[in-house]
Design a protein that fits this description.
Layout (H helix, E strand, L loop, with lengths): L2 H8 L20 H9 L1 E3 L6 E3 H10 L1 H14 L28 H11 L7 E2 L1 H4 L9 E2 L2 H8 L16 H14 L2
Antiparallel strand pairs: 1-2, 3-4
Helix pairs in contact: 4-8
Length: 183
């Protein structure tokens, strides 16, 4: 099943099977994996602060030293010199287009909007897309909630270093080198 169809089956008070529509019994969560994520310590590559893996994503979104660490990797693979980073839009934190609450990472904004604004039909500009080089800061999405679910289910920059001037092959080589160095 695709996620939107499966979520429709899970919306009723009693979740139902996507095929036969019979009532589902509660699923079991991967508690062993959750526990491992909660108990495994790691160190931020920027500020060297120790924390649990479960806190790393939110820390990375607000740690300026971690963002500098990422930019150093980007500089190593960028063919043209990097422009002054102050001229680039913030692609790490976003403001809710409905209530103007600030400092959400991409996944936090998606969760916030699902929780508090799922019934709001007001047409708004997607702050995530507007921050991208190809984004139109004036385009108002006809169905922002659907847009979030389809376009921003996960944060792309969690998995890759985003630089729009870097050569992809050079970036891959740099990522491999840095992953070996970080072990």
């Amino acid at each position: 099943f695709c996620t939107p169809c499966l979520q429709e089956c899970l919306k009723p008070k009693k979740p139902v099977c996507g095929v036969c529509r019979s009532t589902l019994s509660p699923g079991s969560r991967a508690l062993d994996l959750e526990k491992q994520i909660e108990m495994t310590e790691t160190t931020c590559n920027g500020c060297n602060k120790k924390m649990y893996l479960s806190k790393m994503r939110s820390h990375a979104a607000s740690c300026s030293k971690y963002q500098n660490y990422i930019m150093e990797g980007v500089k190593a693979v960028t063919k043209e010199p990097l422009h002054n980073t102050r001229n680039f839009p913030n692609r790490f934190t976003f403001t809710c287009p409905y209530c103007s609450e600030k400092n959400f990472d991409q996944e936090g904004l998606v969760e916030h909007c699902k929780t508090l604004h799922s019934m709001d039909a007001k047409q708004v500009v997607c702050p995530i897309c507007a921050s991208m080089p190809w984004g139109d800061p004036n385009y108002r999405s006809a169905n922002f909630m659907e847009h979030l679910q389809r376009r921003h289910r996960f944060s792309y920059d969690t998995f890759v270093v985003c630089d729009y001037d870097a050569d992809e092959d050079d970036m891959m080589a740099q990522v491999l080198i840095r992953s070996l160095r970080d072990k």
